Amino acid sequence: EPILHQVNFNIPAGSSAAIIGSTGSGKSTIINIITKFYPYKAGSVKIDGIELSEIVKTDLRSNISLVLQDIFLFTGTIMDNITLNNPDISEQKVLEASQKLDAHKFIERLPGGYQFVISERGNNLSTGQRQLISLVRALVYNPTILILDEATSNIDTETEESIQYAIDQLLHDRTSLIIAHRLSTIRNCDQIMVMEKGKLVEQGTHEELIAKEDSRYKQLYTMQFEEV
């Protein structure tokens, strides 16, 4: 069964777009198509005017950094987890990325600093620390396209500010696609898309969508604001 129906959008190079919607609305399907995890049988998906089906998978993915809600860290040092043992990524590059995303301070406080050994799945780090490491990892690979899939959903309010700062630095001058549950984290995106049952039902900036009396985005935003 087709999951997406007449979904049309354009993300200009260097701009940011957010996708919101309930579970099963088609958000993750869009991400999986763009990253070539799912093939598409109809319609057209283009990057820089080139049909996605014509782009070699390794070429595509070498230009994309994907940060997920569930962070994958393996047993090894923080340095190894950031570089993924890629010899082309220097220690200096890691330090610069960590400092830019304000992760350097917490890493330096750990025993051994960047040589601190992470346990399986990062169980000896907090959720926020794991997320910061994943964001530094994304930055050192200097992606043309950045995809964040619910990257702040498990973060407590106290940690959210530092994570949001890191994300803002990461988004700068980079084509970005963000799936988010916390609507406060996407207010400054260049465009916000609201998905429902596989359809794109609303599209615009935060200001444009919040100004519409009967908009779905305004309903969701108001509900979250009241919860806070």
Describe the sheet with the most strands: 6 strands, mixed
Question: Radius of gyration from the CA trace?
Answer: 18 Å
Described by the principal axes of the CA atoms, the overall outline is: globular
Total number of β-strand segments? Answer: 10
Query: Terminal Cα separation, in Å?
Result: 38 Å
Low-confidence stretches: none
Order of helices and strands: EHEEHEEHHHEHEHEEEHH
Beta-strand percentage?
A: 15-25%
Q: Approximately how much helix is present in the residues?
A: 25-40%
- Side by side, the strands of the main sheet go 4-7-8-1-9-10
What's the number of helices?
9
Question: By helix and strand content, what is the structural category?
Answer: alpha/beta
- Average per-residue pLDDT, rounded, comes to 90
What does this 3D model show about the protein?
36% of the residues lie in helices and 18% in strands. The chain is α/β, with parallel strands linked by helices. The strands form three sheets. The protein has a six-stranded mixed beta sheet with strand order 4-7-8-1-9-10, sandwiched between helices. The longest helix has 15 residues, at 157-171. The relative contact order is 0.19. The model has no long low-confidence stretch (mean pLDDT 90).
Features:
alpha/beta; 10 strands; 6-stranded mixed β-sheet; globular
